[in-house]
Fold this protein.
Amino acid sequence: MEILVCVKRVPDTAENEISVNSSGSDIERGDLVYSVNEWDNYAVEEAIQIRDKVGGSVTVVSVGDAESEEVLRREMAMGADKGILLSDDAFTGSDGKGLATILKSEIIKGKYDLVFTGAQADDGAGQIGGMLAAMLDWPYASLVNRIELLDDKKIKIGREIAGGNQEINEIDLPCVLSIQTGINEPRYVGIRGIRKVASVEIPVHGASELGVNSASVGKASAKISKVDYFVPALGKGAELLEGSIEEKVEKLIELLKSKGGIK
């Protein structure tokens, strides 16, 4: 089973206090700590587990600059077999369609049975998986939290839908799946694993290697652009509780009682 997992380097929300810059054009990025997108981490773990059951290999791929190598090496230390970096000045400023175009060009160079993306990426848009599937003309499922291999041509997947319910589908291979958190428990990556892959060569593919027309990607071709970042104003009736956890709990109980929520 040949599996490709799309991963992205993003600010680590557990390690950073995210704030908007003074011009409102972006978040403050100067001192941010970065890591792999959380959903992508679950996708890589699922790919590794499938490979370990049936054989094959897991390749991780990322569109980004040289610093994205850090994320690829982290996922290789986790257990992925290979990493590929898609990097070119022409890719800068690509919207979702542009990113999917770049990834599609890499995918058709290989022979993959499964392509995974995280259910949420690219500022929460969650659009790359669906776009990729449409461009490749492959079956697609989103919010996947269960995968069962039936044979070498078909799999059964579970999707998380409204109300905590499950939807079960059978899908032909090859296909694209967007993986939901909770499908597994991603394994711990130790220093030994990181050292093991530290010197492994990661190929870098640009527009020419991929056969991508520079006019079809990048900022100039983007149909969607970010025009403003802002922190929403505090709405009427909203109240922020301050103090320790215990103090907040006491205040919340008092508020609920005063509003008739509890007696």
